[in-house]
């Protein structure tokens, strides 16, 4: 018996990215002094995502 691929798998990354964007946006609106730190954190995350091909 073959195992069926999970159809929601590709959407999981999109939903996770959108939720992360919303959380970062809320933090940036609530605490504007953290915007430089959030920028560095986002840049580091994107570098890791590219290196690890997440």
Task: List descriptors.
54 residues, mainly alpha, elongated
Can you walk through the features of this model?
The mean pLDDT is 79. It contains 2 helices and no strands. It has 54 residues and is mainly alpha-helical. The chain crosses the membrane at residues 12-29, 35-52. Keywords: Membrane, Transmembrane, Transmembrane helix.
Give the overall average pLDDT. Answer: 79
Written as H for each helix and E for each strand, in order along the chain, the element string is: HH
- Share in β-strands: under 5%
- Tally of DSSP helical segments: 2
**Residues in helices, as a percent range:** over 70%
Mass-distribution shape: elongated
């Amino acid at each position: 018996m073959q195992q069926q691929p999970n159809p929601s798998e590709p959407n999981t990354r999109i939903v996770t990215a959108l939720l992360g964007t919303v959380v970062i946006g809320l933090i940036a609106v609530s605490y504007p002094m953290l915007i430089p730190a959030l920028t560095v954190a986002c840049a580091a995350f994107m570098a890791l995502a590219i290196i690890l091909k997440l």
